[in-house]
Every structure is written in structure tokens, then in C-alpha cells.
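Per reviewer request, we include the raw input and output of the structure prediction for the construct analysed in the revised manuscript.
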Amino acid sequence: MIAIIGGSGFESFDGFVVKEKLEVETPFGAPSTGLKRVLLDGKEVLFLSRHGENHELTPSEINYRANIFALKKAGTRGVVSVSAVGSLKAEHAPGNLVIPLQFFDRTKGVRKSSFCGEGVVGHVSLAHPVCEAAAKKVFEAARALKVPASLGGTYVCMEGPQFSTYAESIHYRSLGGDVIGMTNFPEVALAREAGMTYLPLSFVTDYDCWDTSRPHVTLEEVVRIMRGNNEKAYTLLKELVKKEDLLQGCECGGQGLKAGLMTDFNRLTPNQQEWMRVLQD
């Protein structure tokens, strides 16, 4: 089962056929509204609107743990994350797709970034948070569809909801950042803990404020770019769900808390054991 998490500009896709709206409670609270089983070109997938059905949640208010847990419990093996981002490099033009393989966390510690804590200790590796073999398949599919795309680079995740200051933007570029957004962390880390493949599709809407040679982007321009990005994303998603081999050979499933739990499972409370079984499945 593949799950699609849609961010800003990707809260819905006109071609989705909704089979069922899901109301899910998790041990970590309620996930974002808008969790659905949908048909995409005849293939059943899960879809979650990250910011809620009506875009009512700021990046800091999203219950990332509940979102990932709900998708895992529903049988998800791989997450395709579709997000709007700003560009930190000239070559990543508005309208382009970037498939980052690395992340730089610049959030402020207000987000729950792990399922561990309160008597549960585990450590998982985030050295390579994205499966490169699966990401290459996404990149090849994008190129075949003539979607301007690049594979690799670093996604800088900031807290928001304000955009960067000029000084911050220059700093992020000096760190080697390619794109900047507000939501892929801790989402990617939690997906790793849950043993799920995470594939980030970062669609550029504008250049971040480092480039003073360009006028500041307007909301009208961003909305126009978002509309075009939504169409590109839908076309690409239709192709990806057809790929029976998209997750073939991916080893992300064995790198989560299934292997990284340090606390003796038998010492967990019955409730903790119950939800840990879901994450380790």
C-alpha cells in the first residue's frame, strides 16, 4: 500500500475518486483531517492532507506522529510526500521538481520528532533517510513525463510559519541547502522509525529571499505556480502507483524501531507493546 501526503497546494487532486473517509484515533492523538482511501487511475491508495482538509493546521500544529502511525496501521509501506518549497539555488526554478535525498532540521523543538520517550528508548539511523533506489525510479518517471526534475540535494526544514529572513536564507545556502520547506521534518524521521519508505517530491514555487536580483514573489504568482505544480504532481503520481516495483529492493522497512528498539519489549506497558507491534510490523 502506498500513501500520499499532500502539502500546501496539494490538499486535493481533481482526479481522485474517494472510496472512504477515515476517522482514526491513535495512541498519539488524532491525525490531520482528510485521511481517505482513494482510487488513483484505478489503483487504491491512502491520501492524507497534511494541513487538514481545509488547510487549518500550521506546520507546527500538525500531529506528525499521529499521521505516520495512522498510515502505518492502515498498511502503508511507502509514503510519497508532495510539498511546496522555496528554492535556495538558481538551478531549481519555480515549477521544477526536486527529489532531495538529505534533510537539515532547523525546527525549534516544539514538534514531537520520535515515537520514543516516556519509557521507550530506541535509536534509528537517519544517515540516508531516503531510499535512493526508489527515488531514482521516481526521477526516471518524472523525466519520461517531461516534468523538469532533479535528483539529490538537501531539504532544509524551518519552523515557520513565517518565511526566512535574508540572513537565514544566505546561511542555509552556505550549508549547501537546495530547497527550503516547513513540513518534511520530523515526518521523514517518523517514517523511518515506522519502517516505511519515504519519497519526498518537492515542487518549487519561488526563490527564497537570498536572491535580491528578483522582485519578491506575490501570492498571485505563487498560486499560479502551485496550480501548475498540482497538475504535474497528479500526472506523476498516476505513473508511480502503477509501478509494482517502486519499493522493490528497498531496505527501509528493516531500519526502523523493528531493529532500533533498545528497551526490552517485555518491559513496555501493554499499551506501548500494542502500538510498538504496529510500528515493528
